[in-house]
Amino acid sequence: MAVYTQVSGEDMTLFMARYDLGALVSFHGIAEGVENTNYLLHTDKGQYILTLYEKRVNSGDLPFFLGLMEHLAEKGLPCPTPLHDKGGVVLQELAGRQAALISFLEGYSVHRPRVSHCGHVGRSLATMHIAGEGFALQRTNALSVQGWRALADATASRADTVALGLSEAIAEEIAFLEQNWPEGLPTGIIHADLFPDNVFFLGDELSGFIDFYFACNDTLAYDIAVCLNAWCFEEPNAFNVTKARALLRRYNEKRSLNANELAALPILARGAALRFLLTRLYDWFHTCGSALVRPKDPREYWRKLRFHQKVKSVGDYGL
Fold first, then answer.
1. CA dihedral (81, 85, 90, 94) positive or negative
2. Lower Cβ count inside 10 Å, N or C end of the chain?
3. How far is Cα 125 from Cα 103, in angstroms, rounded to an integer?
4. Ranges of residues in the chain whose predicted pLDDT is under 50
5. What pTM does this model have?
6. Could you give the angle at which helices 62-74 and 115-131 cross, rounded to 10 degrees?
7. Ramachandran sector of residue 89 (left: φ over 0; alpha: ψ -120 to 50; beta: rest)
8. Separation of alpha carbons 123 and 51, rounded Å
């Protein structure tokens, strides 16, 4: 989440008049994240999230994202749901952007995940993978192995200003992963961006997933690899095998990983680390200075990638 597009109070009031959700009391921008503009809105009936979709989001993907949230909610996964206006319309236009109003999810994100948090994430991720079965729409993962060279090319000339030798290291890693990327593993709907700021808790219980705007059809175990990177490292990027074991075991309780998926996790984890290294590197050089957003340091994922390059088997992740 982030704020790139400013909306006036007058325009926001007119926008909310399309809905039967009470009078607008206040609103403010949400700075976390990097993709879209987000506001938290308060009316005299409740709280809501307004998302304005920025140019980096393909408008053709919006029916997939919004439909998926409705599908998962209907299947019992706790997540925000798109709201219909008085005419039954979900997708709107505001301030020159396509927009949607989303239900507010109670909870908070954790900045220092504990082992118990990781366990809850593993089990709920498996629940999401099962709930995604039967969703009719399809979306290819544009940020998987086929899309990495374009990102690398866009940053190659300046990558070494972030870390010496980074450009060559990225090129070598892409070549390795292109040759060794696992095929034939179970596929389905994945979140693809399940970082701690996209998971909410109430007390010790997980209250829901948010921000499905990277969701797509891909290898299910790749979603686990993203979580190993996002949830199981400590500062300064030391891998916590106890957290990884909890995440993997709780996932396996709900949806059993087969032998091929387990064997592929080290390669998938390398790919996930490279994906976030590349997108953070791109944003490091291309984020607009006037946007209310904080680009994230790509070097964090360069260090994580180097850890995964040394992993021999899933046993190094606690199983």
1. negative
2. C
3. 21
4. 1
5. 0.92
6. 100
7. beta
8. 28
Q: What's the one-letter identity of residue 66?
A: L
Residues 242-289: tens digit of each pLDDT: 999 999 999 999 999 999 999 999 999 999 999 999 999 998 988 655
Residue with tokens 């979306």: 139
Residue type, 28: H
Partnered with residue 101 across adjacent β-strands are 50
Closest CA to 145 of 173, 167, 185, 187: 173
Write out the DSSP string of 73-114.
Answer: HHTT-----BPP-TTS---EEETTEEEEEEE----B--SS--
pLDDT of residue 165: 95
Task: Give the closest residue to 246 by CA, choosing from 186, 304, 317, 310.
Answer: 317
Measured in degrees and rounded to the nearest 5, phi and psi for residue 31 equal -85, -20
Contacts of 207 (CB under 8 A, 6+ apart): 78, 105, 106, 107, 200, 201
**16 within 8 A of 25, measured Cβ to Cβ:** no
User: Is the distance from CB of 311 to CB of 266 less than 8 angstroms?
Assistant: yes
Cβ atoms of 19 and 49 within 8 Å: the answer is: no
CB atoms closer than 10 angstroms to residue 138: 9
Distance of CA 117 to the CA centre of its chain: 17
